[in-house]
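Hello again, I could really use a second opinion on something today. I've been staring at a protein lately and its backbone has me curious. Can you walk me through what the tokens say about the fold? Take your time with it, there's no hurry, and the full record follows here:
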Amino acid sequence: MGEYYGLSRGGIMNQLKIKVFTHFTLAIYSSCEVQINQWLDENPNIEIVNMLQSESMAAHNGRIERNLSITVLYRER
């Protein structure tokens, strides 16, 4: 998990953190949604600042593999 610093409304530096979720599958659907929802349930005192998604596909043993990464930039309240 990475850490960045940003300014709050009062000018005090608040620590921003990064959580990265990754999932590799041969199926069309992804379990990333379940992973993210579970993490949010376990961390109710956060403020999500931004979310980024990256997707790619690759041939693996004659099949198409889907690679999904979701990056959450957040701050603890």
Q: What stands out?
A: Residues 19-76 form a domain with the Dodecin subunit-like fold (CATH 3.30.1660). The first strand starts at residue 3 and ends at 7. Strands lie at 3-7, 13-25, 46-60, 63-76.
